[in-house]
Amino acid sequence: LMQVATLPKLPPAGVASFRTLFEVLKRPMIRVALLVVLLVASGHFAGFTYVRPFLEKVPALDIETISLVLLAYGIGGFFGNFAGGFMAERSLKTAVG
């Protein structure tokens, strides 16, 4: 919702089709970037799935503490996205290196 409210409306550069999508996907760097995004997002959400049982058994945390840990994990991911975007704008090499 924030993007809809803050980003300006831009006219389309042209008509996009499935052919255009497949032409873009022919670029190796685009495929690598999409794979990286898929792996990062999957890993982030898999963390929520597997961290809870681990926290119940290994340090034997109660459900309230586990909820706080997962909340902190989610907030960290949220602000980490902003920090990563800021770094990528300044220097892509620094952001990924």
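(the above was protein one; protein two follows)
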Amino acid sequence: MTTTPEILEVRFFGRRAGLLKKTPAGSVFHYLPDYLENPDAIPLSQSLPLQAEAFSPEQSAVTFGNLLPEGEVRRYCETVLRLPPGDDFALLAALGGECAGAISLHPLPAEETPEPGYRDLNSHELKQLLEEPFVFQPISLEPPGRLRLSLAGAQDKLPVLFRDGKVSLPCNGAPSSHLLKPRNPRFPGLVENELFCLRLARQVGIPAAEAEYLSVGEGALLIRRYDRDQHGDELVRLHQEDCCQALGYPQSRKYQQQGGPGFKELFGLLNRSRQPILERRKLLRLALFNLLIENCDAHGKNFSLLYSGTSFTLAPAYDLVCTTVYGGLDRRLAMAYGGIDQLTLIDRGAIEAFSREAGEPKPRFTLELLAELADTCLEQLPVVQAQVSSCSPHEILPEVTQRIEHRCQVLLKSCG
């Protein structure tokens, strides 16, 4: 196993903000005095307010543990990097150079590293990359541990720079612009499925991540990062955090059935935003859209906040998938709607109860919004199917279309 440092320097927008220290009780974070003395200092998270005292291991784990990959991707990283299983600190030390949002972590004492930059991939290398067991650690292109990149979630994905039609690997802390998602042998057509649902969301007026199909090898999904922005020639980081981080839930409790957040907490969180009514309405539309596309995996880590200074908005939608086309996945909804977590049991009563959870005083408004979204989805389904089929005519697309069409019709009938 590799030697793990005892202290990680936490940088926020590239500036030293605090230290994450390994202790027998777990990792402990505290802000640096210089950072706290700056009148422009902002918290790293809703769950890490500015304070001189160190946070507990449990509080620290919420923010930093939620930056890490999960499941098979995590286990593969631990094996390749020769790290002890379940050691968040060791994994952050190995991967924390480029994370979601504007946080990065760097081992102390600091080692001399080259200037941030990019390694361009030719078509052969890109094809080779997509044939890796997991693209998250492309050992055929770089020795294990060379790329310090971390993204949360169970899906395999790699932060890349996509510019002028070319894919490059970020090195030495350089920011990425896109996420590259390869095919998943466990879920055939997942690339087309997610592309379809993201495109449909945008077609019906829901802010969602931009995505395109990458025709290399067996094909992949390329998603533009909403937490990166181009300022002239410079690619800059924007800060974001998922709702588990903001609400203080560890990665292991992202589902409501596991004791994780529900919609009432998410809507309450948006009350802290600068325009709470607008942000709650955005979440309301997205939550209803997830029902229509039969996305049962919309858990607490699949909703995020996007920051501008200390104010935030609901981030564009991501990880939108019609999950019911895959028989092996749980059909329970990740968050209950009005106390109902079975998709097939969602009816008018559930939507009215959900509306009250959302703080919407008139359930009729939510029912009308659901009907409007369902009608618009039905209109746009053929358009989106044609768009995605022109890129990659996968056999899953007709079934995805059929399932969404059926759910729209069912909810129009039961909630009308």
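Reviewer note on protein two: The domain at 245-415 is CATH 1.10.1070 (Phosphatidylinositol 3-kinase Catalytic Subunit; Chain A, Domain 5).
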